[in-house]
Design a protein that fits this description.
Blueprint: H1 39-46, E1 51-56, H2 62-75, E2 84-88, H3 91-105, E3 113-116, H4 117-128, E4 139-141, H5 143-157, H6 166-178, H7 183-188, H8 195-213, E5 216-218, H9 219-232, H10 234-243, E6 246-249, H11 257-266, H12 272-280, E7 299-304, H13 319-322, H14 324-327, E8 332-336, E9 338-339, H15 344-354, E10 366-367, E11 376-380, H16 383-399, E12 407-411, H17 417-426, E13 431-433, H18 443-456, H19 461-467, H20 477-489, H21 494-499, H22 508-527, H23 532-537, H24 546-557, H25 559-564, H26 570-591, H27 597-606, E14 620-624, H28 625-628, E15 632-633, E16 635-638, E17 661-666, E18 671-672
Parallel strand pairs: 1-7, 1-8, 2-3, 2-6, 4-5, 6-7, 9-10, 12-14, 12-16, 13-14
Antiparallel strand pairs: 11-17, 15-18, 16-17
Helix pairs in contact: 1-2, 2-3, 4-9, 5-6, 5-8, 9-10, 9-11, 10-12, 16-17, 18-19, 18-22, 22-24, 24-26
The structure holds a DNA duplex (15 and 10 nucleotides).
Region (Disordered): 1-26
Keywords: ATP-binding, DNA-binding, Helicase, Hydrolase, Isomerase, Nucleotide-binding
Biased composition (Low complexity): 16-26
Length: 681
DNA sequence: AAGTCGTCGCTTTTT
DNA sequence: GCGACGACTT
């Protein structure tokens, strides 16, 4: 293992006076960084110490506090930008936070890491991949990819007879990974008399093996593998523990065990023996060590509110925030209770719902903005009736001068958009569904992306098999199987087996087709090799741009051509979608000069629904309550509030025309979407 | 190998 | 109510 000095770590910080974190650093911030803050917000910005918990009720200005706190740390020279790691919930929130910090400081603050858990982990893993035997161009599998693999495994093992479905296996694997239980840990606890457990272990094993062989990680791996990396290689961990002196985590109530463990690893002190090793490798630690010769753990700030925990289904553990003071003894707690976004009527209604939660610490949100307009309740006779009400109300708001883009409609599940969309189309209301079936989930886009993935990561068998016969080139399942078994028998990768297609004894047509595809992918990969100068600099100089590679692949595979000449009328739209993807890669190339294909693929893998939201769109936004978290609108509609609306599975379909639907809207005041836990019974 | 028809089961919520 | 998948046909 080699330790390198982080390339984007400015060296100046070592010389700076007071660079070491110091709890008694004196008056913290310039006045402009605390101006206009209430006393509690100011306290949260100015507090200096190892651990700070900011309990921030909905709409209490926590983003403001976080950005001011970061700016204050930098402004007071208590941290260099590169020593800051801030974790946000979406990439969009990260970009906004960076802009706001830079606006406060009046200068660019490059080197700050502000990102989601997943983005930060990918960045670390790509850099340290070789330590854990992974290619730095590893693929990130989304849930559809996971399901495809699990489907194949379940079929091969006949596991469906025991009731396993791809979805059930995926959920179970995800749960285990979020609890940091890897296959071998699970294997040790398996009850060998239970055929279900034995079968699941086999599924888990195969799944793990296939991802490893393909050099691929799923979403949950991104977090857990980073934790394993840090635990197995203290010297690697020390690089990051040394670097990040201030770690700030937003939405802490929605962290799961793996994310919690990651934070614990990152805030761990570096022991003197490891400090000595860092020194030997030329990693500078001067000014960071304390009297005992160790580097103290980073200071940690978490922001959250247990009333706003909505991700328990993906392993979020509310104990992380409830037990923060026990985990980090001596932690300071600041409560933000003044709400700046809603009127009292809205707060009271929200409170009435939340107060039904058990185990709840009472919080009293208040506002100085007065009662405001009352919330409107409406009970419809059907989903369509409800949608019509919403549409009429939106029209009324619009006539009263509210812009469409300041209006949002929320629901629990994506399936609930249907009635709304029908009525909105009929009423000619401009709207946009945020999330749901995304652009990148369309089959033709996944095909084009699979070409890029296959070029970036030649080990990725899933990607290659997806495009093997797309567009149709006469390679059917039989041919596919014979390539796979040839690879297996000769210890080759699928890709290598394709290159050696001559020896497979297939028909001339199939052989030519396979070799043609292998050649296309190899040539595209060759375009990505940087020039000698680029290699010498360690940059991407001389490598083809993403859009050039994609254009080459589309041309060589006839992907768009095939769609254009197809008889299926829908294929014209599909061709346009692929062209749209090409346009997006051009935008990417322009906005990210020097970025690689892997950077593009990573970005696409990690976009959240809310990241796609275009603030200037001029349309009403439709989205799930989960997607809405952290967003803000002038008027919002909550639809489908009736009991049991989303659990049709266990109930017969609703008798026609008698579905009770409830919508409620708030307007003429700024309402902030902030969903709350609603545990039934 | 590709096209057509009929059956099953599925959806909370997401990085 | 829709889409994915398998069996069947050409």
């Amino acid at each position: 293992m080699t330790l390198i000095l982080d390339p984007d770590d400015p060296t100046g910080w070592r010389e700076a006076p007071g660079a070491a974190p110091d709890a008694h650093a004196g008056p913290a911030a310039s006045a402009h960084l605390t101006a206009g803050l209430n006393p509690q917000q100011r306290e949260a910005v100015e507090y200096r110490g190892p651990a700070l918990l900011i309990v921030a009720g909905a709409g209490s200005g926590k983003t403001r506090v976080l950005t001011h706190r970061i700016a204050s740390l930098i402004d007071a020279r208590e941290a260099w930008p590169s020593q800051i790691l801030a974790i946000t919930f979406t990439n969009k929130a990260a970009a906004e936070m960076r802009e706001r910090v830079e606006a406060l400081l009046g200068e660019a603050a490059g080197g700050m890491w502000i990102s989601t858990f997943h983005s930060a982990c990918v960045r670390i893993l790509r850099r340290e991949a070789e330590s854990i035997g992974l290619s730095s161009t590893f693929t990130i599998y989304d849930s559809a990819d996971q399901r495809t693999i699990l489907k194949r495994i379940i079929k091969e093992l006949d596991a469906d007879t025991l009731g396993f479905t791809p979805a059930s296996a995926q959920a179970k694997i995800s749960k285990l990974k979020n609890e940091l239980a890897d296959v071998e840990t699970y294997a040790r606890n398996v009850n060998s008399n239970d055929p279900n457990e034995v079968m699941f272990l086999e599924i888990f094993r195969q799944y793990t093996r296939r991802l490893r062989d393909a050099s691929a990680l799923d979403f949950d791996d991104l977090i857990s593998e980073t934790v394993y990396l840090f635990r197995a290689f203290p010297k690697v961990a020390a690089l990051y523990q040394r670097r990040f002196r201030h770690i700030l985590v937003d939405e802490y109530q929605d962290t799961n065990h793996a994310q919690y463990s990651l934070i614990r690893e990152l805030t761990r002190a570096v022991e003197p023996d490891v400090v000595a090793e860092l020194n030997e490798h030329g990693v500078l630690v001067r000014g960071l060590t304390d009297a005992s010769g160790s580097i103290p753990g980073a200071s940690l700030t978490v922001v959250g509110d247990s009333d706003q925990s909505i991700y328990a289904f993906r392993g979020a553990d509310i104990r992380n925030i409830v037990e923060f003071e026990r985990d980090f003894p001596g932690a300071k707690v600041v409560l933000l209770e003044q709400n700046y976004r809603s009127t009292q009527n809205i707060l009271s209604a929200a409170n009435a719902v939340i107060s039904n939660n058990f185990d709840r610490k009472d919080k009293k949100l208040w506002t100085a903005d007065g009662d405001g307009e009352k919330i409107t309740g409406y009970t419809g006779y059907s989903a369509h009736d409800e949608a019509q009400f919403v549409a009429d109300e939106i029209e009324a708001l619009h006539r009263a001068g509210v812009a469409y883009r300041d209006i949002a409609v929320f629901y629990r599940t994506n399936a609930q958009t249907r009635a709304l969309e029908e009525i909105f189309v009929r009423s000619a209301l401009p709207y946009r569904v945020v999330g749901g079936t995304k652009f990148y989930e369309r089959a033709e886009i996944k095909d084009a992306m699979a070409y890029l993935v296959a070029v970036a990561n030649p080990l990725d068998e899933l990607a290659i098999r997806r495009i093997l016969n797309t567009p149709k080139r006469g390679i059917g399942p039989a041919t596919e199987t014979s390539i796979a078994s040839f690879a297996e028998a000769n210890d080759l990768t699928f890709r290598q087996a394709m290159r050696a297609a001559d020896g497979l004894g297939l028909g001339p047509k199939a052989t030519t087709a396979i070799q043609g595809l292998a050649k296309l992918l190899d040539e595209a990969a060759a375009m990505l090799v940087p020039s000698e100068q680029g290699i010498a600099e360690g940059t991407n100089a001389g490598a083809a741009k993403v859009s050039d590679v994609l254009a080459f692949l589309i041309e060589g595979s006839k992907l768009v051509e095939t769609l254009r000449t197809s008889r299926d009328p829908q294929d014209e739209t599909r061709a346009e979608n692929v062209e749209e993807l090409l346009a997006q890669t051009k935008d990417f190339d322009r906005e990210n000069p020097g970025a690689s294909l892997v950077d593009f693929l990573t970005q696409v893998s990690l976009v959240a629904a809310a990241d796609e939201l275009d603030d200037a769109s001029g349309t009403v936004s439709l989205m799930t309550l989960h997607t809405a978290k952290g967003l803000e609108y002038h008027a919002v509609f909550l639809t489908g509030l009736e009991e049991d609306c989303c659990r049709t599975r266990c109930r017969p379909p609703n008798p026609a025309g008698r579905l009770r639907s409830a919508a409620c809207s708030t307007s003429a005041s700024r309402a902030r979407a902030s969903a709350s836990t609603c545990r039934s019974r």
